[in-house]
């Protein structure tokens, strides 16, 4: 693991997010009439090019916590600081926040004694993409851990804002894909590996078939054969995960993957952020267009965060080797 891999993931998220911010909530028809082809600004939120949203902010809040060590309370506190104190925002202001995420952060801030992994909703309707959009940096911390620990820690971090098992599985799938890409696996080979490995693990954990069946397009089918009209871009967690994997598998570079994620419209920033995390790991930092990276808000702060996270990971690895 090296600095460029961490930067590839963090900038992969931020660039995808920033591409999607000006077009968020646009319909598919509107996007076909005016597709995104480059970094642009203003639009939905009237913000300059390179401005990223809550997707990246909460991703960086998680990475910032992990640069110190894994502590669920520190992660949750960073989320609270983001919402109430504009911590790790692009412009000094929170301008986008999901309903479930806002409710969970309010619970953490005002309900004394609640543990972070009980703050997120557990209902069937609590399956927005708010934990999936920020989960990617956890891949670095989980990389050398056993699968049971990977799943349990993923569950805890997702549940800070989204506790339903469907959101947890979506986050777990994304992180397992990221792990395989970090190991240097081809993206299609990784996809095939996950079909057997994740299906077997979910069965081992006795997760209800009614839930695992919702992932059949990923775990049993060939998602890359789906037509664009069969891929949805709403804020539903499963739609976002399927769209991100579809965009990754049906393109051959970072630029095409994230633009393909933005142009169906709707939840453009989140779809592109999740796609960007995987595409960044798949193709590497240098494949993320330099002209886009240069426009990203707080670029130097993101680079510094990546370097600090690597230092912690190297220290952790050294301590494990000497024990």
Could you characterize the architecture of this molecule?
- The protein is an all-alpha fold.
- It is 59% helix and 0% strand.
- It is built from 16 helices and no strands.
- Helix 8 runs parallel beside helix 14.
- It is globular and about 45 Å long.
- The model has no long low-confidence stretch (mean pLDDT 96).
Give the strand content: under 5%
Question: What would you call the shape?
Answer: globular
According to DSSP, the number of beta strands is 0
Mean pLDDT: 96
Residue windows where pLDDT falls under 50 for at least 5 positions: none
The N- to C-terminal Cα distance equals 21 Å
Sheet bearing the most strands, described? Answer: none
- Helix-residue proportion: 55-70%
* Global structural class: mainly alpha
**Helix and strand pattern:** HHHHHHHHHHHHHHHH
What is the number of helices? 16
Radius of gyration, Cα only, in angstroms? 18 Å
């Amino acid at each position: 693991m090296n600095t460029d891999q961490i930067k590839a993931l963090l900038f992969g998220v931020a660039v995808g997010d920033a591409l999607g911010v000006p077009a968020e909530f646009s319909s598919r028809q509107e996007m076909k009439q005016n597709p995104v082809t480059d970094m642009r600004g203003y639009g939905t939120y009237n913000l300059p090019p390179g401005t990223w949203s809550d997707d990246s902010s909460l991703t960086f809040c998680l990475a910032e916590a992990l640069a110190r060590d894994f502590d669920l309370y520190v992660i949750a506190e960073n989320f609270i600081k983001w919402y109430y104190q504009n911590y790790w925002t692009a412009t000094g202001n929170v301008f986008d926040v999901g309903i479930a995420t806002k409710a969970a952060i309010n619970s953490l801030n005002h309900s004394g004694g609640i543990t972070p992994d009980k703050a997120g909703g557990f209902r069937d309707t609590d399956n927005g993409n708010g934990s999936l959009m920020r989960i990617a940096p956890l891949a670095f911390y989980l990389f050398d851990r056993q699968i049971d620990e990977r799943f349990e820690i993923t569950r805890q971090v997702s549940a800070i804002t989204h506790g339903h098992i469907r959101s947890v599985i979506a986050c777990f799938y994304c992180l397992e894909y990221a792990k395989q890409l970090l190991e240097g696996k081809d993206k299609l080979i990784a996809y095939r590996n996950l079909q057997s490995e994740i299906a077997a693990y979910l069965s081992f954990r006795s997760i209800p078939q009614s839930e695992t069946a919702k992932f059949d397009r990923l775990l049993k089918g060939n998602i890359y054969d789906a037509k664009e009209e069969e891929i949805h871009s709403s804020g539903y967690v499963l739609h976002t995960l399927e769209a991100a994997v579809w965009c990754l598998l049906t393109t051959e570079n970072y630029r095409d993957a994230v633009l393909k994620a933005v142009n169906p419209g709707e939840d453009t920033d989140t779809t592109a952020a999740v796609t960007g995390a995987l595409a960044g790991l798949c193709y590497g930092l240098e494949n993320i267009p330099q002209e886009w990276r240069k426009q990203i808000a707080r670029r130097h702060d993101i680079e510094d965060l990546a370097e600090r996270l690597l230092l912690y990971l190297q220290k952790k690895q050294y301590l494990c080797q000497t024990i």
